[in-house]
Design goal:
about 220 residues; alpha/beta; DNA polymerase, domain 1; 6 strands; binds 6-O-phosphono-beta-D-glucopyranose; binds magnesium ion; HAD-SF_hydro_IA; phosphoprotein; HAD_sf; Beta-phosphoglucomutase
């Protein structure tokens, strides 16, 4: 079936920022005295900042060590470090095939939405120069419920007046794929098949995505 709307996750799908999230969390874990591996990091993809902190503290078996106020300051510490990384982003950090895909979809008249958990999404879009492609931007500031709740995708589709079954979601996270499937959107995984068992189809990068099959 042909679809009329593409909804993109940002971190790890369009832009190579997942590595900076990992580095910033890892620095925090190192400072707190425990190790945080790339495999642990898979659980954080697509997950909101505070929920990510909870998972990180669980990995370090430190869940009970901090008050809510202390946790907020730990999350802020991580975010400050992350923002240092992303303030230097430029178009070289766009992931393979993302710019070409956005251009092709735009030329076909497909509606394009962002559906990202990040509160830093707008800064990232600006720094890599792709803001203008989006008909609607839904980010971590706009939602009240985080992925795997589908709100971040339904808000965009609703604003564009597109039925959910006409939406294709591009995601690198388990939480995001679950969110898309919950409302009948096509859930396309970007990454490695073994990390994304919930996906309807997985593509290693956007470069290998066959646009004509889906749009
Ligand atoms: C998602 C990332 O896009 O945004 C998560 O995959 C991140 O790793 C989440 O925690 C929230 O991002 P931010 O920039 O608001 O801390
Ligand atoms: Mg992502």
């Amino acid at each position: 079936m042909k679809h009329t709307c593409a909804i993109f996750d940002l971190d790890g799908v369009l832009v190579d920022t997942a590595k900076y999230h990992y580095l910033a969390w890892k620095e925090l874990a190192d400072r707190l005295g425990f190790s945080f591996t790339l495999q642990d990091n898979e659980r954080l993809k697509g997950v909101s900042r505070m929920a990510s902190l909870d998972i990180l503290l669980e990995v370090g078996q430190m869940t009970e060590h901090f008050t809510q106020a202390e946790k907020e300051s730990l999350a802020e510490e991580k975010n400050n470090r992350y923002v240092e990384f992303i303030s230097k982003l430029d178009e070289s950090e766009l992931l393979e095939g993302s710019l070409a895909l956005l251009e092709t979809l735009k030329a076909k008249g497909v509606k394009i939405a962002l559906g990202s958990a990040s509160k830093n999404a707008k800064m990232i879009l600006e720094n890599v120069g792709i803001t203008a492609f989006f008909d609607v931007i839904v980010d971590g500031n706009a939602v009240s419920k985080a992925k795997p709740d589908p709100e971040v995708f339904t808000l965009g589709a609703d604003q564009l007046n597109v039925p959910y079954e006409q939406c294709v979601v591009f995601e690198d996270s388990q939480a995001g794929l679950e969110a898309a499937k919950a409302v009948g959107m096509l859930a396309l995984g970007v990454g490695q098949e073994q990390d994304l068992p919930q996906a309807d189809v997985v593509f290693p990068t956007l470069k290998s995505f066959p646009v004509g099959v889906y749009f």
